[in-house]
Specification:
The complex is a heterodimer. Chain A has 18 helices and 11 strands. Chain A is α/β, with parallel strands linked by helices. Chain A has 3 domains: 126 residues, 3-Layer(aba) Sandwich (Rossmann fold), CATH 3.40.50.11750; 142 residues, HypD, alpha/beta domain 2 (Rossmann fold, 3-Layer(aba) Sandwich), CATH 3.40.50.11740; 43 residues, no CATH class. The radius of gyration of chain A is 21 Å and the shape is globular. The mean pLDDT of chain B is 93. Chain B is built from 9 helices and 14 strands. The chains are: A alpha/beta, B alpha+beta. Chains A and B meet through helix 2, helix 4 and helix 13 of A and strand 13 and strand 14 of B.
């Protein structure tokens, strides 16, 4: 096989001519359609959309909205409280940087817990936590496992291989397919089409989405993260709506397959089982929470320390519409606190904290409204 | 809580702008002159004399493509050039930490000498202080510069007047821009900041990127000789994003730029993508943004490209009354606002 420069491939996915032609085709199809609401569920998709100004290219009757795709945002407030409690009791807490700044139900974040004496260490992954715990056997360590199908397999793999006795894990991992299923059914959203997250689906495959698609047939496209990927996904969804032929389509063929990463999923399900999962701001979704199996309770911080199960409680700052932003009911600019009391320097809710949060992405790009291109 | 000065107050972004406007100008903004302090332009001017002072705290002192010495000469000279001045003399303030090696000092002074000699601007006065160990890190330079009206400035302004009724400005001010004016950038952006970042402790990555630090005398002369330039500014701290927002605000116009046209090296773009930096917010030390009346934009661009430091120059956009802020058409044709950066993503680059 001849060597292809990765940069040249990427360039094609940002090609101005292809993008303009796609934008033209999108507007052309949309002329004959009623209002269309397309939802995506990934912070990285939102970044691409905002960074490249994709919304400005869409006709007025096609709306693109971010749903629950930010791991920090959907992590239950009660689990943040749980991990803070462990930290205050002397357990060394290892956590992703973003997660340390999100506030729990008592209005405190791990960062603030640190200033009150808790030992909080920022890590890039469970490997770092593993090393720290191994080097320091006289202290108890806990890793705060947050995120989706993308980050959970690494943890499952480490647990399978064996972790030091002094390291436990608080699992707030969530499984994306059932949440997408719930979004498609949500009566208050009336979603017309879904852009599925390319990286999560690379792990899960397209297959687990089939039951939700069959239950409620709506256009569903698995998409990558370059601007052409997103434009193509929008085009594919509109085309399905135009022809009324709804299907599960794969735009991200260079990564997503029907079966996904079988090995990763097997490892995941060997260590975890899928149980009821609470998504902060969105609600309880059946079979969406990764819970340690009985065979692996020995690393489960929830079991070891007798921590509470995630509570189905909103826990947001008064007046903030974090829940509506996370769920995808509104855009950030519709929240009365956006860029007023709530800014990236003084975030009042998780969507303004995380780099994958819709509010933070909009704020970083100084979005105060949608600019539309004139054609 | 006691209010104290933070890094962000000196980082070239929005926070520094408001710090200067609300704090420094409150004390010192009373002076008048052809270009007073209150106009917050690249240099000041009074009675036909241009004056500029700039301090340099770059870290590390030596970096690919330059050092604190060449940087100081280029930075101060460029600021004098940018308002239409011809630099004629420099003043060097040296503040050295006890224990600083003579070998390094030698290198820095040689570099100052070489850079200044190339453009024929001598250091005619200066001052030296040594402070005890720990009172500052290694060495801080102050480079002040003196200039006069550039010999081609009046010719350039006459050309502008021919095309623009009622134009009566005496200098190339940030507030001179009108809708329609084209914006030229004289070459690749982001090189300086990324070159520095590549040799920072704890960051090191392999990238063959050199700082662009260089005085722009020849390039500016070529542009003014052609004529039609209304404003010039060097995108140092805060980068192009900050520069364009300052122009937009001071001139009361919108500015639309085209992402496709902005010269950015692949290597710089890759580092930026990897580290989540915006190339538009990165500092440069050998580039200028030049606003030109639309009728002569192509000719000025050609003239700039004749100069080795301007060979990669491009027209990147124009002033417009369609918007009242800075907006960018992205590579895929979408639109997004280009906000002024809050602070510098990479501190201590100059």
């Amino acid at each position: 096989m001849s060597e292809i420069d990765i940069k040249d491939i990427l360039r094609l996915y940002r090609d101005p001519k292809i993008a303009r032609r796609l934008a033209f085709k999108i507007r052309d199809i949309a002329k004959d359609l009623e209002d269309v609401l397309i939802m995506h569920v990934c912070g990285t998709h939102e970044w691409t959309i905002t960074h490249y100004g994709i919304r400005s290219l869409l006709p007025d009757n096609v709306e693109l909205r971010a749903g629950p795709g930010c791991p920090v945002c959907i992590t239950p407030a009660s689990d943040i409280d749980n991990i803070i409690k462990l930290g205050m009791e002397g357990v060394v807490v290892t956590v992703y940087g973003d997660m340390s700044r999100a506030k729990g139900g008592k209005g405190m974040s791990l960062e603030e817990a640190r200033s009150r004496g808790a030992d909080i260490r920022i890590v890039y992954g469970i490997q770092d936590a593993f090393m720290m715990a191994q080097r320091d056997p006289n202290h108890k360590y806990v890793f705060f496992g947050v995120g989706f199908d993308t980050t959970a397999p690494a943890t499952a793999y480490m647990v399978k291989k064996g972790v030091p006795d002094n390291l436990s894990i608080l699992s707030s991992y969530r499984y994306v397919p059932p949440a997408v299923g719930a979004l498609m059914m949500a009566p208050d959203l009336a979603v017309d089409g879904i852009i599925n997250p390319g990286h999560s689906s690379t792990v899960t495959g397209m297959k687990p989405y089939k039951e939700y698609f069959d239950r409620n047939k709506k256009p569903m496209v698995f998409a990558g993260f370059e601007p052409i990927d997103v434009l193509l996904a929008i085009y594919m969804i509109l085309k399905q709506i135009e022809t009324k032929e709804y299907k599960m389509e794969n735009e991200y063929t260079r990564s997503v397959t029907w079966d996904g990463n079988v090995k990763a999923m097997e490892t995941l399900l060997e260590v975890f089982l899928l149980s009821e999962g609470y998504w902060r701001g969105f609600g309880v979704v059946d079979k969406s929470g990764f819970v340690f199996r009985n065979t692996h309770k020995y690393v489960d911080a929830r079991y070891i320390y007798g921590l509470s199960e995630p509570r189905d409680k909103e826990d947001f700052v008064a007046g903030a519409r974090c829940a509506d932003v996370i769920k995808g009911k509104i855009d950030p600019v519709e929240c009365p606190l956006y860029m007023k009391e709530c800014t990236p320097n003084y975030p009042r809710g998780p969507p303004m904290v995380s780099i994958e949060g819709t509010c933070k992405i909009w704020a970083d790009h100084k979005v105060t409204g949608i600019i539309k291109c004139r054609f | 809580m006691t209010d104290v000065v933070k890094m962000v107050h000196g980082a070239g972004g929005q926070a520094m702008q408001s710090f200067i406007k609300e704090y420094i100008l409150r004390h010192l903004g009373w002076g008048t002159g052809e270009i007073p302090l209150s106009s917050l332009d690249d240099s000041g001017a009074i009675d036909g004399v241009v004056l500029k002072s700039d301090s340099y705290t770059v870290k590390p002192l030596f970096f690919p493509g330059g050092d604190i010495g060449s940087l100081a000469v280029a930075g101060t000279i460029n600021d004098i050039l940018m308002i239409g001045g011809r630099p004629i003399a420099l003043a060097l303030g040296l503040i050295i930490e006890e224990g600083f090696p003579f070998s390094d000092l030698d290198r820095i002074l040689k570099s100052i000498s070489n850079t200044a000699m190339k453009v024929g601007v001598p250091v005619i006065t200066g001052d030296t202080k040594v402070v005890e160990k720990g009172a500052l890190e290694n060495l801080v330079l102050n480079m002040s510069g003196l200039g006069v009206r550039h010999p081609y400035l009046d010719h350039n302004l006459e050309v502008v007047k021919k095309y623009r009724d009622g134009f009566d400005e005496k200098w190339l001010l940030d507030s001179n821009i009108k809708p329609g004016d084209k914006i030229i950038i004289t070459g690749y952006i982001g090189d300086h900041a990324i070159a520095l970042l590549s040799v920072r402790e704890g960051v090191n990555f392999e990238a063959d990127i050199k700082s662009d630090a260089a005085p722009l005398n020849g390039l500016v002369e070529a542009a003014l000789k052609m004529g039609g330039v209304v404003a010039m500014k060097d995108p140092t701290r805060g980068g192009l994003a900050n520069l364009l927002n300052e122009w937009s605000e001071k001139s009361g116009v919108g500015i639309k730029i085209y992402e496709e046209c902005i010269p950015i090296r692949d290597s710089v773009r890759n580092v930026c993508e990897y580290l989540g930096l915006d190339p538009l917010e990165l500092g440069n030390e050998g580039k200028a943004a030049i606003a030109v009346i639309p009728e002569l934009a192509d000719k000025v661009l050609e003239a700039i490209r004749q100069n080795p430091l301007g060979k990669d120059a491009e027209i990147i956009g124009e002033a417009t009354d369609e918007y009242d802020f800075v907006i960018m058409e992205t590579v895929i044709g979408g639109l997004r606002a280009v906000p002024p950066p809050i602070g510098d993503p990479i501190p201590r680059i100059c």
